[in-house]
Design brief:
2 domains; alpha+beta; elongated; 7 strands
């Protein structure tokens, strides 16, 4: 009987520690989700501004597993394309984007065709 009470107290103590630890972890995650002043689009723009690329388009494809999003395959990466830009790119075109900028320079036959701005996506 005495061992049963000790074992029960140990179980309650361990469950309490686990519960408190999980509560603390989830509260940090929840705080960021609920009280973050940035919108998801602002997070998207922030992520895009960190990208630096200058490359030629190798091929264009749609990723069926990713909401049928159009991607352009570059030399060393793939870039998801906004639906409003779907018809703008062709294989062999070049794109250039500097880190810290939200503008993509789109070249065709070594001539600047247009400058696409990520800020225009939301409009």
């Amino acid at each position: 009987m005495d061992n049963y009470m000790v074992l029960r107290k140990v179980k309650i103590f361990l469950f309490g520690i686990i519960f408190i630890t999980l509560s603390i972890i989830l509260s940090f995650i929840g705080y960021d989700l609920w009280f973050d002043p940035k919108s998801p689009f602002e997070h998207f723009l922030e992520a895009q501004s960190k990208i630096n690329m200058q490359s030629k388009i190798i091929f264009i494809y749609r990723d069926v597993k990713n909401h049928n999003t159009q991607f352009i395959k570059l030399k060393d990466t793939a870039l998801g394309i906004s639906p409003i830009w779907d018809d703008k790119f062709q294989v062999g075109d070049s794109i250039s984007k500097k880190k810290g900028s939200l503008k993509i320079e789109h070249y065709r036959n070594n001539n600047l065709l247009e400058i696409l701005d990520y800020n225009d996506i939301k409009k």
